[in-house]
Amino acid sequence: MVKYQHYIDGKVCLVIGSESPWAEAALLNLKAKHVITIEYMEIKTDYPKLTTYHPSAVAELNIKNLWEPVDLIFSYSSLEHDGLGRYGDPLNPFGDLESVARARCLLKPHGILMLGVPFAPDTVLWNAHRTYGKYRLALLTMGFQIIDLIGSSCYVDKHAVRDGGYCQPIMVLRKTGSHSKLMR
Asked: How far apart are CA 69 and CA 55, in angstroms?
């Protein structure tokens, strides 16, 4: 992530899904101005540069036009679980796609999404997670331009994917266009 510190330094960043605050710590170490975490499980903190919200609280702020768009969103090993009910979220077969679409609404124009999901043939491993192949990955990244893949060795050495495993690079994505253009 150091390679992309210029997207983080002095910026407001958002972490989606956080059982432990490793991503928040990494962003703050890279000089994020402030980090916001969205998580279904309650997180208590008194650290002044960290704010936490339940997803429903963020939705309410956004609906009331009180949400300030963020510069960068980071999510690793989280959104592939959305809609499967495993972590207290409601059942929804499109939960992952809807979560990315909602995240896009929380970003500033041309904001950055750093997203790590498992790459393998398109599959739902009930109720653990999804893996993303050619089709679902295209749906997941709609409205974003892929800038880079961090840890993308699975494209060089595909033996793990071929043997039933998967790899989980971090996609660096830039928000493109507007929703009104996407819906036409």
From this structure: 15
Predicted confidence (pLDDT) at residue 182 exceeds the cutoff of 70: no
- SS3 of the chain: the string is CHHHHHHCCCCEEEEECCCCCHHHHHHHHCCCCEEEEECCCCCCCCCCCEEEECHHHHHHHHHCCCCCCEEEEEEECCHHHCCCCCCCCCCCCCHHHHHHHHHHHHEEEEEEEEEECCECCCEEECCCEEEECHHHHHHHCCCEEEEEEECCHHHCCCHHHHCCCCECCEEEEEECCCHHHHHC
The pTM of the full predicted model, rounded to 2 decimals, is: 0.89
Tens of pLDDT, residues 51-77: 999 999 999 999 999 999 999 999 999
Peptide bond into 29 cis (omega under 30): no
13 compared with 162, residue with greater pLDDT: 13
Q: How far apart are CA 78 and CA 88, in angstroms?
A: 13
Q: Are 91 and 84 in contact (CB under 8 A)?
A: yes
| Whether 40 contacts 99, CB under 8 Å | no
